[in-house]
Amino acid sequence: MNAVLSQNASAEPDAGNVRRAGADLAVLSLSKAFGGVHAVEDLSFHIRAGTIHSVIGPNGAGKTTLFNLITGLYQPDQGEVLLNGQSVQGMPPERLARLGMSRTFQNLQICMNMSAVENVMLGRHLHLKRNFLAALLRWPSLRRSERACREQARELLCFVGCEAYLEAEASAMPYGALKRLEIARALATEPGILLLDEPAAGLNSAETAALERLIQRVADQGVTVVLVEHDMKLVMAVSDQVLVLDYGRKLAEGTPQEVRHNPDVIAAYLGG
Amino acid sequence: MRLSMPSKMPGLPVLVLVLLLVPIILNDEFYLDIATQMALIAATVVGLNLLVGYAGQVSLGHAAFFAMGAYGSAILTGTYGWTPVPALLCAALLVATLAWLVGRPILRLKGHYLSMATLGLGIIIAIVINNEGWLTGGPDGIPVQPLSLMGFELSIFDEYHLFGLVISGTHAWYALAGVLLVLAVWIAQNLIDSPIGRALRAVHGSEVAARTVGVDTSHYKLLIFVISAVYASVMGSFFAHYTGFITPQLATFEHSIELITMVVLGGMGSTYGVIIGAVLLLLLPQLLTDFHEYEMMMFGLILMLTMIFMPKGLLPTLSALVKRHWPAGVRSSGPEG
After folding, report:
1. pLDDT band for position A134 (50/70/90)?
2. What pLDDT does residue B290 have?
């Protein structure tokens, strides 16, 4: 299954099996306040390339704000975000995508006016020829690259376990499948780092188990995975490192084992 | 393995068929004249629909772009003696530049600022056309040379002999307008089915999602705004050559509203729907003799009723009805579908 994108490599060389190496992410004393509330405060951490790093914390701990700061949807008040050593804070999401950053959303961001396959094809945007005249005149080379892109999108849908929805409109798909569709779209960008915002929320235990295998397979391909998640079983099972946030600050960081036995973490979660 | 077809292509043969049937069924100079004007306006609206239906932006100044094309051609061919084709291209280039200059700062902003900007731009252009009489003929209007290419002149008052057939000028112009409409639809559909079109539809679906996969949304909105303005300009040029006389009436705010009403009535985002919208709205004044006096009221009423009772517009609403009553299972869809 590792070769999910490589089968069609002959049709379009630059879109094929050349996976980006996982990206390395460093956050240096990052802060963001909304009004008087410090959603993220003086937060620093480092995520090594190719690892699975989870961010956990009680509701309102600043996890989603942190994601939005990293992915360029919010501007930080202070601090730095380094992607592979390059300073990227304040960059808009469309530029970060070019640098290999991709994400999913807690409240789904699916284009409901398109089919499942088209949603994934959208993820291939940066890898496609977007020549304007070729588009106007329906150039044969454009038709070929569109066919190859559609085929890749279908393979990615199968990869994330959406093979039942190859012909479906996004608006006709159930919630669990849409969550996987979003992951397929994010993977279509060939990311170096993939940020998943609560991918297991609303999934049943069988779906969560499938998600766990999927995250593992994505990481096996060398992609750095950052996970915001409330499902502790999933977090403990897949993570290399866990970062615990509370009121926008770092409460603890370490392997799942270390975090599980950290007295501060236990206190924060049990309300001590 | 089944690959789904590009969704909207079967409409093109139907359009060609209808265009071929019109002169056979309504073989009358008067009807053909109306049909020719309809085809040119419909092509303009197909371009406007790219902006409204796919980039989710509203232009309230498209009549001004149409008029700029018309006046550009009229002035360059009449006053300066250019041949029509370079004049048409030059006017289109001018309109494209203007649209780019206005759209570039505006489309970086979220929201409907483009409507305000184009409203203002349209009014300014209308005033300039009205007041600069030395160039534009002022409120009295200006005559336009017939269309010609490499010495061959296309005028409604001539007759043409082709393969032993005698074709009136009206027929020839109808044929040209029909070809232009088909071309306009073909290009619009190509754009919609391309990665650029997909990116634009994604902006409608979820702008955040589009941006996080690398779509530079303001760039594509600007691109489509310029394209839709060029559509209007080119069709304005042809319209001027066809009618042979143009007035500042073309550039009015009312005319812009009429174009938007056609899009909304026919169905935003439906290329064939907006053609039907254009045909219906252009039929109204033919059916109701007093229409002109109540024009703005009628447009307002149509806009309101459409928005309340069929917000998706005529064609999408009708095709949804057909699909509901005859769910023939021809459509491919997912297991839930």
Report:
1. confident
2. 76
Closest CA to A69 of A83, A57, A58: A83
User: Which comes out higher in pLDDT, residue B226 or A248?
Assistant: B226
Structure tokens at B160: 């043409």
Q: Which of B14, B147, B161 is nearest to B84 (CA)?
A: B147
Interface of B with A (CB under 8 A): 2-4, 187, 190-191, 193-199, 201-202, 204-206, 208-217, 223, 332-337
Instruction: Report yes or no: B292 and B285 within 8 Å, Cβ to Cβ.
Output: yes
Query: Which of A20, A71, A96, A111 to substitute to test the interface with B, most B CBs within 10 Å?
Result: A111
How many CB atoms within 10 Å of residue B83? Answer: 15
- Residue A8's CATH number: 3.40.50.300
pTM: 0.84
Residue B42 confidence (pLDDT): 98
Q: Which residue range is the domain that position A55 belongs to?
A: 2-270
Best of A69, A109, A171 to disrupt the B interface (most B CBs within 10 Å) is: A109
What would the two tokens of residue A40 be?
A: 């993220």
**Phi and psi, residue A27, nearest 5°:** -120, 125
pLDDT surpassing 70 at residue A94? yes
Confidence bin at A166 (pLDDT 50/70/90): very high
> Which DSSP helix (H) or strand (E) runs through A244?
strand A241-246
Mean pLDDT over each residue of chain A, to the nearest integer: 88
HSE-up of residue B75 (Cα within 13 Å, Cβ side): 18
The residue type at A179: K
Residue B297 burial by Cβ neighbours in a 10 Å radius (0-12, 13-18, 19+): exposed
pLDDT value at position A271? 63
Instruction: Look at residue B303 and give its three-state secondary structure.
Output: helix
Instruction: Tell me: pLDDT of A260 over 70.
Output: yes
Backbone angles phi, psi at B206, to 5 degrees: -160, 105
Determine contact: A68 vs chain B, CB below 8 A: no
Q: Is the dihedral of CA A143, A144, A149, A150 positive or negative?
A: positive
Residues in a beta bridge with A111:
none
Complex ipTM > 0.90 = no
Report the DSSP beta bridge partners of residue A43: A30
Where are any strands of DSSP class E within B193-313? 245-246
Residues of chain B with pLDDT under 70: 1-9, 327-337
Q: Hey, what are B125's tokens?
A: 């252009």
**Would you state the pLDDT for residue A14?**
40
Q: B211, A142: Cβ pair inside 8 Å?
A: no
Instruction: Produce one character per residue of B8-29: b if its CB has 16 or more CB atoms within 10 Å, e if not.
Output: eeebeeebeeebeebbeeeeee
The total number of structural domains in chain A stands at: 1
CA–CA distance, B267 with B311 (Å, rounded to integer): 8
Among B3, B202, B216, beta carbon nearest to A122: B202
CA distance A225 to A54: 8
Amino acid at B27: N
Q: What is the pLDDT of residue B39?
A: 97
The answer to whether residue A11 scores a pLDDT higher than 60 is: no
Q: Are A179 and A108 in contact (CB under 8 A)?
A: yes
